[in-house]
């Protein structure tokens, strides 16, 4: 029986990924594969693979030979950067790990060999995800420009700056972990905050 991982991701902390998990559990049952891990992320898909703990965990399991299949609901769950997604696909393919995409019912490996149709689809879908994100970004920037033209102030008032002491007090738990010698990555995970926030705290200490 093949060993599989369920991989799910949402972009925002308030979003829920449980529906993805339930759907993929049903897929695993229908394919008669054994789920050995369920990896979940609440992070932007535009982040680099090296900055995503879920992706790193997935790659570690693959490199150890602990899994033969990854189940995802759609390509964008792996990421929204075409280059980063294709890097994941390529490494898993070389390791003999197949990626099953539920919404299209395709796999990257067929009888242990590359599925050219799936490879093409991944490239195409990852690029669509990137374009979708770029379009959204352009709309946001356009809306901000229009608001400025109408005299609306965007962001903090001119001259306003969060006081260092206030910021450190706000993230006191983060400061404690850093002073104790924990790494930025471990502190971010332990305190459930963004890595950039931890880096900012570290710079102020």
UniProtKB/TrEMBL annotation:
Protein family (similarity comment): Belongs to the site-specific recombinase resolvase family.
InterPro entries membership: Resolv_N (IPR006119), Resolvase-like_N_sf (IPR036162), SSR_resolvase (IPR050639)
Pfam family name, one: Resolvase
Domain of life: Bacteria
Resolvase/invertase-type recombinase catalytic domain boundaries: 3-151
Coiled-coil region: none
Origin species: Hymenobacter amundsenii
SMART domains: Resolvase
Gene3D superfamilies: Resolvase, N-terminal catalytic domain (3.40.50.1390)
Protein name: DNA resolvase
Gene Ontology terms for molecular function: DNA binding; DNA strand exchange activity
């Amino acid at each position: 029986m093949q060993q599989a991982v369920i991989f799910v991701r949402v972009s925002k902390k308030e979003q829920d990924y449980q529906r993805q998990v339930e759907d993929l559990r049903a897929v695993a049952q229908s394919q008669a594969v054994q789920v050995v891990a369920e990896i979940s992320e609440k992070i932007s898909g535009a982040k680099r693979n090296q900055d995503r703990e879920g992706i790193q965990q997935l790659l570690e399991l693959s490199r150890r030979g602990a899994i033969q299949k990854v189940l995802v609901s759609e390509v964008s769950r792996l990421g929204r950067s075409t280059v980063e997604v294709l890097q994941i696909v390529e490494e898993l393919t070389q390791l003999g790990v197949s990626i099953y995409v539920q919404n299209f019912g395709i796999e990257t490996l067929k009888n242990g060999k590359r599925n050219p149709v799936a490879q093409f689809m991944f490239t195409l879908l990852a690029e669509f995800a990137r374009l979708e994100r770029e379009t959204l970004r352009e709309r946001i920037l356009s809306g901000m420009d229009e608001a400025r033209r109408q005299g609306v102030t965007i962001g903090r008032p001119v001259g306003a700056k969060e006081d260092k002491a206030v910021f450190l007090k706000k993230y006191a738990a983060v400061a404690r972990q850093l002073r104790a010698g924990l790494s930025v990555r471990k502190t971010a995970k332990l305190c459930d905050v963004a890595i950039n926030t931890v880096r900012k705290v570290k710079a102020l200490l």
